[in-house]
UniProtKB/TrEMBL annotation:
Residues 1-12 have a biased composition (Polar residues). The keyword Protein biosynthesis does not apply. This is Delta-aminolevulinic acid dehydratase. It comes from Mesorhizobium liriopis. The gene is hemB. Homooctamer.
Length: 346
């Protein structure tokens, strides 16, 4: 008995007849030919390294939810900047873990000239003046409730928050920040920050807008890193974008550019590659993605369990951002990726 199922055999055609002699594997047959036709390339120039600041001197605290990462005091942040510069990383983005006794409902520490983020900037610039520093003026590291704005009677006050962060932006520029990157998603913040910077002699300081920051579940480890885990009252859905919305992301970006943004960012990164591509095609502006803490920690955890090749997945995701249209990527993997790229990649 024939164990194989029978079916009607078509008259045989050669593969060349089927494909019209178009064999797409021809240029994949050797490393040199694959390199020759590679459409997208990742370089160290595409990397921005976010680092976390904490109080003290010679302090290096591990972040449990982000294996391999640390909070560092300003003096050690300067050392990290030296390391980044040697690797060729163009810029750092700094985020402070503010002591709880310095937090209040209005995030008033953002208005202090010598707050942690500004001291970190000064320390880094003194040690490595040539490296770029990107600072955020959202209030969440500075508030007792973990929101990005001033909270009153359960409502985030847009206009009062905008005035607060515009003041903070001027102080950050004064401390040496090269780019102001507001992530709070308040209406009108870009125009207010632009006006404040220009009025105080910082017209050459650009703004990288978190133009499309989504109400995502990927931010959890970051909140531990900056000390806001457990503080958040409610959620951020009244000011972050619904993950279901693409047209709204375009409208937010268009508004920020009209108000004076020089660069745009999509956050989180990997779940929103379609948004990156759409914004790049729509506006042709310098476009960035933030590979956020949840993305980082998932890769680290899966690699630690032996489920994936961590290095290869890391590099593949970074390449995906470039393929989608990014001019650069904020990624906690920056030093590791830079070292691999220096060795020729994977």
């Amino acid at each position: 008995m024939n164990k194989h199922s029978s079916f009607s055999q078509p008259s045989p055609r050669s593969v060349d007849e089927i494909t019209g002699s178009r064999r797409l594997r021809r240029m994949r047959k050797a490393p040199w030919s694959r390199r020759l036709v590679q459409e997208t390339q990742l370089t160290v120039n595409d990397l921005i390294w976010p680092i976390f600041l904490t109080e003290g001197t010679n302090v290096r605290e591990p972040i449990a939810a982000m294996p391999g990462l640390f909070r560092v005091s300003p003096d050690l942040a300067a050392k990290e900047a030296e390391r980044a510069a040697k690797l060729g990383i163009p810029a750092l983005a700094t985020f402070p873990n503010v002591a709880f006794d310095l937090k209040d409902e209005a995030g008033s520490q953002i208005r202090e000239r010598e707050n942690l983020i500004n001291r970190g900037t000064r320390a880094i610039k003194a040690a490595v003046p040539e490296i770029g520093i990107i600072t955020d003026v959202a209030l969440d590291p500075f508030t007792t409730h973990g929101h990005d704005g001033i909270l009153r009677d359960g409502i985030i006050l847009n206009d009062e928050t905008v005035a607060q962060i515009a003041h903070g932006a001027v102080l950050q520029a004064e401390a040496g920040a090269d780019i102001i990157a507001p992530s709070d998603m308040m209406d009108g913040r870009i125009g207010a920050i632009r006006d404040a910077l220009d009025a105080n002699g910082f017209s050459d300081v650009p703004i990288m807008s978190y133009a499309t920051k989504f109400a995502s579940a990927y931010y959890g480890p970051y909140r531990e890193a900056i000390g806001t885990a457990g503080l958040l009252k409610g959620d951020k859905k009244t000011y972050y974008i619904d993950p279901a919305n693409s047209d709204e992301a375009v409208r937010e970006t268009e508004q920020d550019l009209a108000e004076g943004a020089d660069m745009i960012m999509v956050k989180p990164g990997l779940p929103y590659l379609d948004i990156i591509r759409r914004l790049k095609d729509e506006f042709a502006m310098p476009t960035f993605a933030y590979q956020v803490s949840g993305e980082y920690s998932m890769i680290r955890a899966a690699a630690a369990n032996g489920w994936i090749d961590g290095e290869r997945v890391m590099m593949e995701t970074l390449l995906a951002f470039k393929r989608a249209g990014c001019d650069g990527i904020l990624t906690y993997f920056a030093p590791e990726a830079a070292e691999l790229l220096a060795k020729g990649g994977l």
